[in-house]
Queue: 2 jobs
Job 1
Amino acid sequence: MKKIVMKFGGTSLATGENIRRVANIVADSVKKDYRVVVVVSALAGVTNKLIEISEQAKKGDEKKIQMFTKELAEQHLVAVSKAIVNKQLQKETAKIVANTISELKKVLTGICYVGELTPKSRDYVLSFGERLSAPIVCSALRDLKFEAQFFTGKDAGIVTDSNFGEADPLMDYTTHRIWQTILPLLEKGVIPVVTGYIAADQDGVVTTLGRGGSDYTATILGVALAADEVWIWTDVDGIMTTDPKIIPSAKKLYLLSYQEAAEMAIFGAKAMHPRALEPVIKASIPVRIRSVFHPDNDGTLITKEPEIKLSAIKSIKSTEVVKAVAMIKDVAMLNVSGGGMVGAPGSYAKVFEVLGKNDINVMMISTAVSEANMSLVVRRSLLGRALSTLEIALLGRGLVNEVTAEDDVCVIAAMGANMKGTLGVASRIFTAMAQKGINIRMIAQGSSELNISFVVKEKDGIAAVRAIHEEFKLDKI
Ligand code: ADP
Ligand code: ASP
Ligand code: MG
């Protein structure tokens, strides 16, 4: 009997009708004799709204808390009424929703009075999205006459470090706990419904696994339960050659290696959380990305050694050099320059030390052999802080004489395992840019040769993605 962990993203859980669709997908698999563990995200947009309201609460805006919790309750109660037919079940679930929201209201009011939002209290607030969606999905399954039980990540036994906002699981401890909580239910034919994204540290304090972290919850559970596969259900047919919202003719990739998929996730193909593949790589558990709107479609299979399996799928060539292209928005570029950096050991280290100490993550780096300047890409929201800390720490000390920034840029990344060792890929990419009149501001290619990333003005971003998609004929893949 196959064990499958299925994760449903916010886009698949936008409305009560969608939740019913999700329940039916789970039901179909259970009828096929699969043992299924369900992992759910918050309803679409809810986590973003929780981030907003926690900031407003910090500023002391109590009125907004009233309005927000009222709207949140309405949204979830409408979902309850559409997702569940049985009146008794509806009533029970509505009560859970009301109780959960009244707890949230207390937490937000506390933040409002104290005027302080710590990483710990922020994670607590953000946990409410999944705490509200999981009971609704669970009841929708019971409504279809399946035995189901919902768990928070904490109750399921997912134990993490205390790195609030980006916590990582303590896998051995977690596995031990999950064998006690989830495994026995699964063996009895009960469907566990677990909140994605949220867990708890060793002291039982709620943590979150980073944005999009429900994917991570699914793979953590997959490994702990030694599942046969992990299925990530979303609103697109799989991992595509580029974001289909940018280029509608983007094609689905049937098969990707863990390495390729991780590369794509890191580079902004939102279809997957960047760290979600770490646990399954070690355990060699295949992951499938599938669409709730086309459940007959097999989706994208992410596994070890794709070439072996590829030969079994005759329609797919394994020779594509560039398989996918991504655009990463909301970034900014910093240029640090100064003759004092030339031949001065530790000068680059100084730049990174300043940024690291101020919690500014560097996404991309490029330097020239002249050593007189270095370009860095950071999240746009961190630009102001990055610029001022670099200026304070470095200017006027003989090393750096100018720090400049551009905030109207984006990163374009072309990816594919077959780029390694293939001549002329960079030339084709940059010729395609030149032909469209797109100026390149910065370039980086790691020695892994799995991707080439470069920075262009944001206004040229879509044209750049389209040009690479055309150059490598990705819509014919
Ligand atoms: P979920 O709510 O299911 O977690 P996400 O919004 O996190 O969904 O991810 C799915 C979205 O990722 C798609 O709707 C799509 O627009 C976007 N996306 C970006 N790049 C890609 C890509 N290369 N392949 C598939 N989807 C992509
Ligand atoms: N709800 C969380 C987020 O929006 C986790 C997830 O959706 O995977 O980031
Ligand atoms: Mg996601």
Note: Confidence is low (pLDDT under 50) at residues 311-316.
Job 2
Amino acid sequence: MDKRLLEKIKRLKDKRKAVILAHNYQPGEIQDLADFCGDSLGLSIKAAETDAKVIVFCGVQFMAETAAILSPEKTVLLPDKFAGCPLADMITAEQLRQLKQKNPNALVVSYVNSSAEVKAESDYCCTSANAVEVVSSLPTDRPVIFVPDQHLGRFAAEKTGRDLVLWPGYCTTHIVITVEDIKNAKAKYPDAIVMAHPECTEPVKKLSDQILSTGQMLKFTKTSDAKQFIIATEIGMIHALKKQNPQAEFIAASDRAICPNMKKITLDKIIGSLQDLQYKVMVSEEIRTKAKKAIDRMVEILPH
Ligand code: 13P
């Protein structure tokens, strides 16, 4: 990695009293320079805890937005303003309001991969690490709407035995991982443990040994005796896993599982972000307070 660029980032970070947070799907060099690297849940908690004045969020829009919801007094920056999340864009607040009208007595759980406006229309937020716990905490005499990811929703429904009202959203990166990818990888590495993210399709999950969020994958491999793992999620995860456990072998289930939005963040853009305080992630106070209630309810239920 370019040492001069790194030193420049360090100087700017000190000047701005900034902290750099990176998701596990970020390019390896960005994971390496970040002050904290983690899953969606871990990053939102870190964002709330830090006493830094500025948060440079190396991830996608909804993640930076969640940090801004939790930390209104901090400046939250997304180094590339076009780093969005197609899954989060698959439901609007208006569409959710219509779904609520059709299911008037329902409680709404929104996956953290959603806009602040959608969270503001929700009773609970959840991440892939705690969707099952959040759903199972809800009263059984109320219907539950789960948006926007149908695959995580089905996983939570199966694990809790609850019938959820689902929305047909999906992650454009996880659905490229196919049954053939898993079968081929298993044939090549018969002793490997297959770990799939809950955003994968149901047939892919059925062929997997473990269904885990990115943070849970890190936890699981830390204590597992296995030496080979097939990873069915975005390929940035391989860097995070290898770094923690250099002795083990991590095989990407599919080389096509690349999130183009996560990869929009570069070292140059981080420098630009720190120099010019761009791009500020703003959430109106009205939306923020409503969305924060849904996130706070999730945090109360947690195992994290
Ligand atoms: P995690 O919460 O498991 O890090 O997943 C984030 C995500 O956006 C998956 O597509």
Note: The mean pLDDT is 96.
